[in-house]
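Subject: Sanity check before I submit

Could someone independently write out the structure tokens for this chain? I want to compare against mine line by line before I put it in a report. The sequence has 183 residues.
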Amino acid sequence: MKTRAEFGAWLTSCGYSRVAEIGVAAGVFSYHVLNNWTGGYTMIDPWSHQSDGYVDVSNFTDDEHEQNYQRALGVARHFAPRVQVLRSYSVEAAKTFPDSFFDVVYLDGNHSYEALLEDLHAWMPKVRSGGAMAGHDYLDGVLPQGIFGVKRAVQEFFGRTPDIVTDEDWPSWVMFNSRQTTD
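---
Independent answer below. Compare away.
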């Protein structure tokens, strides 16, 4: 996979059938994935402004988030019945799914170092052995678009660089889950 645009085809090539996307916004990426892949998809986002000092161009006003939520619901309706929408913060949403439930979890929510580490801890148990943890914006630093700590959090959590990093300005990353489970 060279770019994020190939994600749906990549899911098909891997034989994956159940994916969660954390941080959906208007559902543009969701639509592209669902249009290029036939599995079950869970769209998770709080669709609310984070007023805790989080700096990111995607930390929209509540009104903008509501508009994005309505657009995301339109995407879900278009691909019904294989799409579930959950309006929730990431870590709380993770608690609602059993361990080893998803083939892939794609993290594209809060891009701060601390929040991404929390997401990794919350969602990694939800990925089955043989599945993958993935995400967007594999970058660190203070950028015009916000403060990013994705690269540092991913490398710290896994103890290595990702198995796949796409070749684009806002790269996606993939880590295959080879842990042994009793499932």
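---
OP: Matches mine. For the report I'm noting this point. The chain has a mean pLDDT of 93.
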